[in-house]
Input
Amino acid sequence: MDMNKDLIFQMNKFVGDLHVFKTKLHNFHWNLVGEQFFVIHPMLDGIMGEVDTQIDAVAERLLMKNERPFASLEVYLKHTVINEIESKAYNGKEVVTCMHEDFKLLLSEINIIIKIAEDVDDQETLALLTDAAALYQKHIWMFGAWLA
Ligand SMILES: [Fe+2]
Output
């Protein structure tokens, strides 16, 4: 595949990953049970806010590149690497373990985009995704510390 086309596809795939991840965060926000509730429930609001900002930033970057962002749930689900989960009670450890794994998956998706953006010398996309990668590395460290 042409590298520019590949970059567009991977960016779109990431928009979908973030949408599915946000749905999963809502699931955890609502279905969380146990002693950690008052810490993790509001923490998830903060992460959902970040994810919303990233969705919009990547989608608008696609528009700046004269492309159309993926914008349907059907297309997101077709390409995402994030697994959906059922609506049931989850304790704090289950939530943090699952998010830790999803952050690692999302970081690997970001790293694919970064590599291609470097190859095609798209500095602005590179800057945007490098910032996102740093944020995900921070979450992976913090969630890993919580689980240790
Ligand atoms: Fe809420």
Notes: The pocket of fe (ii) ion is lined by residues 29, 45 (CB under 6 Å). The longest strand covers residues 32-33. The radius of gyration is 16 Å.
